[in-house]
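Supplementary Methods S3. Input chains for the assembly prediction are listed below.
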Amino acid sequence: MSIVETADAEGSVSLHQRILSDISERIMSGAWAPGHRIPFEHELSAQYNCSRMTVNKALSQLAKAGLIERRRRSGSFVRRPQSQAAVLEIHDIRIEVEALGLPYRYERVARHKRRSSAEDRALLELGAAGPVLALECGHFAGERPFAHEQRLINLTAVAEAADEEFVAIAPGPWLIGRVPWSEAEHRIRAVAADRHIAAALDIAAGAPCLVVERRTWSADHPVTHVRFTYAAESHTLVARFTPSQG
Amino acid sequence: MSIVETADAEGSVSLHQRILSDISERIMSGAWAPGHRIPFEHELSAQYNCSRMTVNKALSQLAKAGLIERRRRSGSFVRRPQSQAAVLEIHDIRIEVEALGLPYRYERVARHKRRSSAEDRALLELGAAGPVLALECGHFAGERPFAHEQRLINLTAVAEAADEEFVAIAPGPWLIGRVPWSEAEHRIRAVAADRHIAAALDIAAGAPCLVVERRTWSADHPVTHVRFTYAAESHTLVARFTPSQG
DNA sequence: ATGGCGATTATGTATATACATATTGAAACG
DNA sequence: CGTTTCAATATGTATATACATAATCGCCAT
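Predicted structure tokens for the full assembly:
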């Protein structure tokens, strides 16, 4: 999320947004270095000839975005960037494939309904035993395998999934829109392909693969755990930067 | 950035924040599904017995966070989640290592000052030729190699780097705080270790590695390009979720 | 010196009010 | 019947005002 929304498209930006982008620019350009005290609210309201509330709106947003730190009685200060946070966009695989200009094909490989094993519960971070749906799917770009999907769905949280075959539709798009998620966690790592994955992706066993695992919660209930495995050549994750706090 | 900042620690939350978290919870839990019209500002201000401005503050934040969409004359509606965006925190390697409870060691392997080659310019997305500093560094966790760093610094943008040996301090921490960055781009992928990397990380050639590349700009000038290579077992990137707009 | 205390100051939150703006629905008109 | 116009409505922005809260400075007494 960019802080300054519709940056000077024309002259039709609100005052507090102009104040925000003015200050934000001075920080980004380095004119106001970390630690620098930016003008007090009453000074800015005099400069811009507006009320303190308007300035306050701009500065509050800058503080929430982590660009400045506000201290009562002392003023507002440019923050030192702490941890770099990048926004990683994780799209539906169909969209990723089609962005490459290749035809997308989906295939359901396997589907098992079972009582959750200890391993299932570990993956889903599930406390008690209950029914789960285990799925294995292939995603293709043209003729080549693009990604292999191994997914667990917590049927206690998403009972309707038990009646879905997932032949015509992939579980990802099926879940999106049906289940409101509140939280998710991604783990990204490199692995060597085991025999199973090697066969699925049509690569040599031991070849490097990128693994993206996602665990999703909805209102504190585990919903799904999915592991996507990509052959090394086929995929690069791109993350754009956000100047955020630490 | 979580939308509800200090969620009900005690009763000491501001009213607009309570309104925000009330609504946010109803959306997250699915009680208010995508497309649902949430109460008008004047209705909420009656419910909470507060002014419309207070409600407006809460709803504006929800809109900016992408949870709701506001339409003049029609009201505010729960948005359908579009693209999933996760926040990827990329820390300094020292911090990552120490988080594992292992002693951290840094080592500068090589340092070359040169006129930028065509490859350098491609990596930095640099237009004209100019001096660059090429660095190669090792990061160790205990006795084991943890990550290998290959870095280019654009000396046109960061002239002072020419006088730094980078023996005592790693280029990452050196650059942070000295150069205000405004933008960065990350590329994450899996590769097979070539002989050079294999030797540096003390792994077999062809073994899978996680590569994180980062390109950084400051006020539209390319500053640095860095490639971190991790042995597969040593590292997993963790990304937390943000319910963001698309 | 030093420890406490009150005054000062900047931010944090909330209010009532005002007018602008976009959009919709209905009435008026050709 | 279709089009234009207009009023109603919800949000968007800005104001002046008020009081709360936290942090700091300086004064004063010990």
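The domain at 87-242 of chain A is CATH 3.40.1410.10 (Chorismate lyase). The radius of gyration of chain A is 24 Å.
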